[in-house]
Amino acid sequence: MPDLFQQESPLVQMKFVEPExxxxxxxxxxxxxxxxxxxxxxxxxFVAAVLKVLGCEPPTEANTMRESGDYRIYWLGPDEWxxxxxxxxxxxxxxxxxxxxxxxxxxxxxxxxxxxxxNITGENAAKLLARDCPLDLHPRVFKPGQCAQTRLAxxxxxxxxxxxxxxxxxxxxxxxxxxxxxxLQDALVELK
Length: 192
Fold this sequence. Notes:
By secondary structure, this protein is α+β, with helices and mostly antiparallel strands. It folds into two domains: 25-30 and 113-191, 2-Layer Sandwich (Gyrase A, domain 2), CATH 3.30.1360; 33-112, Alpha-Beta Plaits. 22% of the residues lie in helices and 31% in strands. Helix 1 runs antiparallel to helix 2 (90-100).
């Protein structure tokens, strides 16, 4: 009898074209944890709790992100952040945050099953995304340590430049994963 609760990636059936030369490489990083965190960055107890659990304070500058060990914290708004955890750790991190934030005005929601992350790397990664992303993705404008909420092919996404290689990570809703995957494949063909 099959396991009815086996987790599947939103793009489990998508086979991205292998790159040739300077073509971008598209790779899903499935099963990461995505936690929506809300609170007041001016409240010292909130900041202290986040620092204790994640190892860094939430970024307060618009469209920035911070990394601490295996965690990344994306600024989504003045009182909202997206915390990315390694596979299988979202539940533990959510529980730790909730325990540390007990009595502090805050919200901690696990959105892991609703989001996925794609890495788009290579010399032409920005050119591929620029086909239907309104942001200026040039590295002199959009640098590592920054993030933005925007759209790709009419679907909402959060995007950040990769720190260690030429490219970007994009976070998309699970419900748009097939659509974005197919759009990226078509855009790759047109890019040639």
